[in-house]
Design a protein that fits this description.
By secondary structure, this protein is of the alpha/beta class. The protein has helices at residues 19-35, 55-58, 72-85, 122-131, 165-174, and strands spanning 43-47, 64-69, 90-94, 107-113, 133-144, 178-192, 195-207. The protein has a 7-stranded mixed β-sheet. Helix 4 links the parallel strand 4 (107-113) and strand 5. The N and C termini lie far apart (37 Å).
């Protein structure tokens, strides 16, 4: 599979118009809120925040929240939501995918939803995220379980066809995280070539000692 970055800018304005995408974001946000004890003192980062479908549900429950994304179009949509909602505790940042990733230090939680399958080097990403955490901080990654490549209509920008549970948990362990666990947050159903296919979305969490 040849990796080519996806063009999210061109899709940003319509991103939230797909009901199953919104349902997935709601399921992931609910799972994070139910799994990680959140508090107004927490400093949180969402890597690959997109239009903020997950982030905006977590933001009212924490202190400062950073939203990082490589698509200016997505961030523009997110910024408009923040203005509409009157949320003042979210700081948006543009990621340069051609430069080494630099994250704030002293984070209590790093979250990411449906982003890691777009990242060629997942190990380096998770190591960077873990290094940004305070002791006791949590990394929470939601993504597809391994699938046959049929989940996406267009494979542009897809670096991985999901992750086996043991594969994703292995990345967490390699990053020095402990108490690593995975829960299924949603089963998404799509019709593919006349067949009904099920795709599983998991949330994996781990804590920095």
């Amino acid at each position: 599979m040849v990796y080519q970055p996806a063009d999210f800018d061109s899709r940003a304005a319509q991103w939230d118009h797909l009901p199953r995408r919104v349902a997935l974001a709601n399921a992931v946000a609910t799972a994070i809120i139910e799994t990680v004890p959140l508090s107004p003192a927490m400093k949180v980062l969402d890597y690959g925040c997109g239009t903020g479908l997950v982030t905006i549900q977590v933001a009212p429950l924490v202190g400062t929240l950073y939203g990082y994304d490589s698509s200016n179009g997505m961030l523009e949509q997110f910024a408009q939501k923040l203005a509409d909602e009157g949320l003042k505790n979210v700081v948006l940042r543009m990621i340069d995918l051609d430069a080494p990733l630099e994250l704030p230090t002293g984070l209590d939680l790093v979250i990411s939803s449906m982003t890691t399958h777009h990242v060629p080097d997942v190990a380096t990403l998770l190591n960077t995220c873990a290094a940004s955490l305070n002791s006791g901080g949590v990394l929470a990654i939601a993504d597809l379980e391994s699938e046959d490549g049929s989940f996406h209509d267009d494979a542009t920008g897809i670096a991985h066809f999901g992750f086996a549970v043991e594969e994703m948990e292995g990345y967490f362990n390699q990053a020095g995280l402990t108490d690593v666990k995975t829960v299924r947050v949603m089963t998404m159903v799509k019709e593919r070539e006349g067949h009904v296919c099920e795709y599983y979305i998991n949330l994996t969490t781990g804590q920095l000692p």
